[in-house]
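Illustration: Signal transduction histidine-protein kinase ArlS.
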Amino acid sequence: MNKIQHYLSNQSLKGKWALTSAVVIFVSFAVICSVLYIAIHSWLLNEQEQSVKRTMDDLTVFFESQGNFLTIHDIQSNKGLMNSIVDKNQTVRILNQDKVEILRINDSTKIMPSVPEGLPNHGYAISKEKVENVDTFLAASTIKIGPFSGYIQLTHPLTSFLSLMRYILTAMCILGLGALIASAGIGYILATTLLKPLDDLRLEMTEVAEQGFKAPIKLQYDAKDEIGDLLTVYRSMMGELEQSFLSQQQFISDASHELRTPIQVVEGHLSLIKRWGKDDPAVLEESLNTSLLEITRMKKLIEEMLELARREQNDLQNNADILMITADIMEEIKVLSPDATIELEVDSENSYRAIISDNAYGQILRNLLQNAIRYSENSPRIKIRLSKQHENVQIEVSDQGIGIAEEDQARIFDRFYRVDSSRSRDGGGTGLGLSIVNMLVNKYCGTIKVKSKLHFGSTFSIELPAEK
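Result:
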């Protein structure tokens, strides 16, 4: 069994298909042939038995119709009377009371069996025995012809019947072998034809593995079946993989660039301190302050990169009190940025609980508020508005800052993207804040939109599923 399983596991899909179809068709054919063979065998055997009964009935009627006028001598002198009743493949014997043969009609069997004991007074007895190694029907009864009393015995060999059954069995075996070969061939051809798109897809996947995403998808298959669905999923998957691969490359490139700058600044100031800064307190103080600032920026960048890299599953059992957390974070931001003015507007006293964790919503709001403060030219004025929209909680954060150009709005959620890179670096931004906001909103099945006009401020609108 293990060898068979090993053999099948090493076969191609076409080979498995052809072998399976051949086995299924052959087994089905064998079952049907077996049923037919048994039915034909029973039917023909019953016909042979009925032939014996008809002959015995005809002989009984013949002897009874002749009454006392028919003698054994008459039958011996004119066997034609009996030949017209007895089939040529049957042998009939008439025996006296001592079971000595007096008359024989036909000679289909050389060795005759003895007449059984205990025959019925009326009618006859039929049995099936082996005579000369051939299945044979035997029939015997008592007989009275004029003054003669004795026995009549009929022997019916099943030679013709057995020959016919052997012929039928041979024909079925030949047809079964032909069906096995034909089904295997047809199954292989069908498998080759039907699985050709899969084979082409395998070749394309191999080409992609060798050449990368530069290899184009050439396979065309328009049928709306499982293979068509598989090709659609493959194309979608390849598109997502390519986009993910490109995003990963871009992320690595941007991350290495962003980390290189503070490292170079720290390295430069450490070299400056090593050369002459140790003897100049002013240079030493400036270099240490600058190095600490760059290290702080680098630490923040690494933390935000790790936050983006995490892929924890969202917990739909979490729910946050948006109003309470918003009020807490407003107080927190006012302490850090005393010159900022933050207003909160609430539509009603409804419950503002959303399906999101407290920490995730806190990160979202902090990033939006810090961006609003960072990109304000004058004293920051920020307005937060909470409302219920259908089954969602809506949070709007509006500022009166520098705004975002229309061509930049589609990319502000990309990692490391900055509208004004020089200003962002001076303000301490990493270009990851809005990426984290977008990631967290999507993680909890929410949506985020931005409306902005250059020099007139921006409004970020977030919708989160409300607690039911």
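Reading the tokens back as a structure: The longest helix spans residues 13-66.
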